[in-house]
Write a structure and sequence with these properties.
Elements: H1 3-6, H2 11-16, H3 20-26, H4 33-46, H5 52-62, H6 65-71, H7 76-84, H8 92-102, H9 108-116, H10 120-133, H11 139-148, H12 152-165, H13 171-182, H14 191-204, H15 210-214, H16 222-235, H17 238-247, H18 251-255, H19 260-267, H20 273-286, H21 291-297, H22 304-317, H23 323-330, H24 353-364, H25 370-376, H26 383-396, H27 401-405, H28 408-412, H29 416-429
Helix pairs in contact: 3-4, 4-5, 6-8, 7-8, 8-10, 9-10, 10-12, 11-12, 12-14, 13-14, 14-16, 16-17, 19-20, 20-21, 20-22, 22-24, 23-24, 24-26, 25-26, 26-29
Length: about 425
Amino acid sequence: MSIIDMFKPNIERLKSKKKVNHLIKALQYKNDWNVRMSAAASLVEIGWEPIGEDGIYYLIALGEWTKLIKMGVSVVEPLIAVLQDHNSSPLHCETIKALGAIKDKRAVETLLNVLRDNKIHLREEVVKALGQIGDKTVVKPLISMLKNEDGIAFRCETIRALGSTKDKRAVEPLIAVLQQESRKPRLDTNMNIIMEVVIAMGKIKDERAITHLVSLYNVYTDYLNKKIKNALFTINTELSKFYLAILNSDENRLLEIDNGFDLAVEALYHKNNWVRRQAIWALMILRDYRAVEQIKKELNDNDLIVVSYAIYALGEIGDDRGITPLIDILLNKDFPLCNGGNGSTFAEHRCSPRSEAAVALGKIKDKRAYEALIAVFEEKGCDCLMEKSAWALGQLGDKSAMDALKSPKNRTNSSRRVKKAIDKLEKIKR
């Protein structure tokens, strides 16, 4: 028998003799948590009603964690003592959870010591508790763990904890995690990590996160899109309001932003194709005279959908400064055919930029577009391009277009829009 066992309370004997005070003292016996549990169970059988600090150790021994949490800060020191006691390890997990729920800063240092002890099975619970407490002193050690740990579940919990601190020191490390994850091939990307970073950024409310959040929009899932919008709403700066307006295509909100034009121009350089498209939409809605020159630059974008958005916007604005570049696009045979035409390679959008350019030229109604629109009928283009070019000629109202539209080539390729253009021109002639 060891020396420790020689001095271990004999709970059965104490219970049989109803030695209440000795059983109460046994509730704090440090060498064996089973002794404490047995003492508590014996006190229950005797019918003892717990009072004061003794009641706290009584509830700990019985595992009455919900009651302990409701007692609040008065139980923090006893719980810390349990967590510091290596002989009470079976109680440590629930003790950590209770300390997290109570959210008292006195527990922080002890919880950090548990992390330093590298107790693998407790680490996630410790990080979660630290996040619930939200004390600023945990930011540096949490950032260090985020940089040095590879476990997905642990990283997610660490990100959540950093978000809960709302400390701006966490922004750059979280952005680094986001960039690291988004650079991976789509199938290797961990959506849980990305989601947790987005949520954490919303809690921290730092403007540096905005463009990084927006870069993920329409890249992954609708659910992530929703979380990005929630984060932008929570950040609540002029920049976040602008991006929220363009992501939602909210014209009224966009018009309320004082520097909307400058923000839209800045967004034209965003790496996310979808954001660039929406920036063009914003410039179109704002109707600033400077918008035309900015939108014209997007006609050279490497994304054909962005190009088509720019063409559409120029047509809607109706400024004749767009005529020359629109004519260049109309005559550029390097663009793919319209979706649905022969051998279409432009599946993301129904119409080729050439067809979109024809429509835009028709909306602007500048006579300089006449020769280019007529030239379309001299080539074997897709039906969509010919129809829209015919419509544009009808909008220009030049009667000399009749001969081109009625040529044998076009009669063979006759379409509803060609006929409509002819009808419109005939009415003008009359």
